[in-house]
Specification:
Largest sheet: 5 strands, parallel
Number of helices: 6
Helix content: 25-40%
CATH class of the largest domain: Alpha Beta
Oligomer: single chain
Structural class: alpha/beta
Radius of gyration: 19 Å
CATH topology of the largest domain: Rossmann fold
Strand content: 15-25%
């Protein structure tokens, strides 16, 4: 398979999927430097069409500029994509970028279920080599009323109201992994449904310690989440 990457290969999602994934899974990586993206925002889409790439790793900025510049580009066909990995999917502005990109390029073969917003590589929420099931649902979205954000009381509301927040899913937990959200400060208490916290991941794919730093290892790796009742 071929992956088209626009991200920085020295860190985060670009490092995980443009370098390590290619080495470990023998994938063909087409890396598009950001300097070229400034001159031609459609360069990554052109590479997807040219090589019939299955996966593209981009940011919401790349999806924002592409619809503006695509008018001069003919013969665009994105039907080969099975995953469009959006590295900054946790940012609020990525929602409108994803929607606009889909509306413009859906007629060019882009399927809604290929969008895969991702929060961060540390969360290990993306498995590129695990093909999506046929007919799988697109990334989840929910519209929350700002008046009901009270740690557990969430109401699905319509998007037309000005008093709501639109959130989108940032990926699925990898098979065999466990994940929860705990308070970022103090004891690692489990967060409520709409409470901000820190992700805790338990899987064989994550690290187990800091070499030679037992204190930091105990703080970062030996975390036992607990409920407010102490269980």
């Amino acid at each position: 398979e071929t992956i088209v990457n626009v991200l920085d290969v020295k860190k985060d999602v670009g490092l995980w999927h443009a370098v390590q994934t290619s080495v470990m899974n023998m994938l063909h990586i087409i890396s598009v430097p950001y300097a070229l993206m400034k001159v031609n925002p459609l360069s990554w889409i052109q590479k997807v069409c040219q090589y019939k790439a299955k996966v593209a790793c981009v940011k919401s900025r790349d999806m924002h500029w592409a619809p503006v510049a695509h008018r001069d580009q003919r013969d665009v066909n994105l039907s080969s994509l099975r995953m469009l990995l959006v590295a900054d999917g946790s940012n609020p502005w990525s929602i409108s970028s994803c929607d606009t990109f889909l509306n413009v390029f859906q007629s060019k073969g882009l399927r809604s279920e290929v969008r895969c917003p991702c929060a961060s590589p540390e969360a290990l929420t993306v498995a590129i080599r695990r093909p999506a099931e046929e007919g799988s649902a697109p990334p989840g979205r929910g519209v929350l009323s700002t008046q009901d954000l009270s740690h557990g009381v969430i109401r699905i509301d319509s998007e037309e109201k000005l008093s709501v927040l639109t959130l989108q899913d940032v990926g699925s937990v990898m098979p065999g992994a466990l994940m929860c959200t705990v308070k970022a400060e103090g004891l690692p208490l489990l967060c409520k449904a709409d409470e901000i916290g820190e992700l805790v991941v338990c899987t064989v794919a994550t690290g187990t310690s800091y070499h030679g730093l037992p204190g930091m290892t105990k703080t970062m790796f030996e975390v036992v989440p607990a409920s407010n009742g102490g269980a």
